[in-house]
Design brief:
306 residues, two-stranded antiparallel sheet, alpha+beta, 8 strands, 6-stranded mixed sheet
Length: 306
């Protein structure tokens, strides 16, 4: 059973988006925040890298002397200067990253760091009237108006492991342990899924949960993620907000949701096996329950006849 065929019976209700770009970062907002970051430290955003680095050189020079002869005040001054130098380098690097993102094409912005590999989405559409003066619009839309769309399953796939790393003499669970090549790839996929889930809940305030699926070659695992399972994100750094006391706990809990005790399911499933098909059917049932919840799908718009 393949991911694409999984929802074939629900044509026109559920659709699989290959390389569906969930979002393109709002560069204007990102630039405003970056300007504020520079202003917070009293640094001119438009200054060159060299000019910014000169700010560190303008600090009072350290007194000459060995560690034995330096006073506590002199040692503190050196530490402060080093910390300030690190701040300036971070600001320079953040600006470089932003400018690199600014000059990317749309295709690049929807690449590995901008969109998951697949999104199984729920859509609802209705026929629209065919007006002569708007016949081009009718043609482009295929005669239908999409009045609801949401993401039900977010899928991130990584490359399969090398054949030499898979030892047929040991159990499958050992091949899939956390430190293995497959385990590392699945962990990387989950890290990206955590950001995509944060984007999903940010874009859709009404969304309560979404299914996240991580894969590495034929190996995969999944979890049902709720809004409170995802840490708050800093959309400039594109990582959980540093200093938030709940961030680390939520990150650890997020990865734990993809795992389960050995007596309930393996570390990961392998496509084509009975266990894998059972889990895929569970996902299908969860999606169907999700989209049938009362109030999830709005009523279709009514068009008056001419």
């Amino acid at each position: 059973m393949t991911f694409t065929k999984l929802f074939a019976p629900y044509d026109d209700k559920i659709i699989v988006y290959p390389q569906y770009c969930m979002y393109v970062a709002d560069l204007t907002v990102a630039q405003d925040k970056l300007h504020a970051k520079f202003a917070e430290h009293g640094v001119d955003y438009d200054a060159s890298d060299n000019r910014i680095r000169q700010l560190c050189r303008r600090l009072p020079k350290d007194h000459v002397g060995t560690l034995r002869t330096k006073t506590n005040a002199q040692n503190k001054q050196e530490k402060d200067k080093k910390a300030w130098r690190n701040v300036l380098e971070v600001l320079i690097e953040m600006r470089r990253d932003f400018l690199a993102e600014l000059h990317k094409d749309i295709e690049e912005m929807g690449g590995a760091d901008g969109s998951p590999d697949f999104v199984i989405g729920h859509i609802a559409a209705c026929p629209i009237p065919r007006l002569m003066e708007e016949r081009n619009y009718f043609h482009y839309r295929g005669g239908r108006k999409v009045y609801h769309r949401c993401s039900a399953v977010i899928v991130e796939l990584k490359a399969p492991p090398c054949r030499h790393s898979w030892d047929a003499r040991i159990g499958t669970r050992a091949n899939l342990r956390g430190g293995s090549e497959v385990g590392v790839a699945l962990k990387q996929a989950e890290d990206e899924l955590m950001e995509y889930c944060a984007v999903h809940f940010s874009e859709d305030p009404a969304a309560k949960s979404v299914i996240a699926l991580a894969g590495a070659g034929p190996c995969w695992r999944w979890a049902s993620i709720e809004r409170e399972d995802v840490p708050d994100y800093d959309w400039i750094l594109r990582e959980p907000i540093v200093g938030n006391p709940d961030s680390l706990d939520k990150e650890l809990a997020f990865h734990e949701k993809f795992q389960a005790p050995p007596d309930t399911k393996p570390y990961a499933f392998i496509l084509g096996t009975p266990e894998s098909d059972i889990q895929l059917n569970k996902i299908r049932k969860e999606v169907c329950i999700m989209i049938r919840v009362s109030g999830h799908t709005p009523s279709a718009p009514v068009f008056e006849d001419d």
